[in-house]
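Design request, tokens follow.
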């Protein structure tokens, strides 16, 4: 089944006295269980496309359909609810809450969803173990390495078992070894749970892990490669 459909998306930004086409009639379908990388140079459109899929940015025209539901015309409240319950996000800057422990950061989404405290606690411990952070549940972000913080961010993203995880330059602040370990973790979660991953990156290390590589330039898709067939 199709996890994400983007139909003829256009998005233009005003930069000084110029109009910049971030998305120029972009159409893609991403199947459930996909492991997709969006690759582009800076300004190529990959982050704009990722944000459109996640409902963080609304296209000027076209349609975005996630899990069978059109989201580009949703209200802000409905979009927030959809993101909370169906989409996990992993950002370059981790976006962890500094005063909370790793466990509390992971619990945060589940708490907003209204999950009971004992169930939140049990699930957060299980997920932190799954991402290799058993024993570090009580540490705050400042007491953890960049790689460990990104693993907490991943644990938080998958806490509610979303069908779709969107990651924007998740390895940008990581060394080669840690970046590889993070991608192995993504791959494991993709294969174990069937979670669909869409990753925006210009990191060649990340691209090698993708089942499907979509290259963009100037807001257009210029190449769409099934790397499993390579």
């Amino acid at each position: 089944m199709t996890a994400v459909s983007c139909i003829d998306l256009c998005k233009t930004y005003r930069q000084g006295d110029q109009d910049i086409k971030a998305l120029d009639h972009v159409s893609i379908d991403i199947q459930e269980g996909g492991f997709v990388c969006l690759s582009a140079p800076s300004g190529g459109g990959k982050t704009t496309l990722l944000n459109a899929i996640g409902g963080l940015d609304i296209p000027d025209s076209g349609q975005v359909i996630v899990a069978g539901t059109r989201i580009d015309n949703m209200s802000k409240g409905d979009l927030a609810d959809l993101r909370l319950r169906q989409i996990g996000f992993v950002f370059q800057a981790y976006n962890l809450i500094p005063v909370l422990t790793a466990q509390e950061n992971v619990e945060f989404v589940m708490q907003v969803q209204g999950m009971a405290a004992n169930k939140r606690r049990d699930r957060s411990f299980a997920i932190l173990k799954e991402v290799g952070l058993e024993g570090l549940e009580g540490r705050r972000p400042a007491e953890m390495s960049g790689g460990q913080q990104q693993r907490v961010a991943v644990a938080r993203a998958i806490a509610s078992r979303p069908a779709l995880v969107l990651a924007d330059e998740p390895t940008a602040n990581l060394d080669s070894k840690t970046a590889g370990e993070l991608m192995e973790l993504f791959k494991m979660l993709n294969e174990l749970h069937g979670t669909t991953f869409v990753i925006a990156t210009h990191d060649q290390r990340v691209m090698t892990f993708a089942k499907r590589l979509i290259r963009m330039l100037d807001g257009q898709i210029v190449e769409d490669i099934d790397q499993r067939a390579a």
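Comment from the thread starter after seeing the answer: thanks! The beta strands are 2-15, 18-31, 35-39, 61-66, 69-70, 87-91, 164-168, 196-201, 212-217, 220-226.
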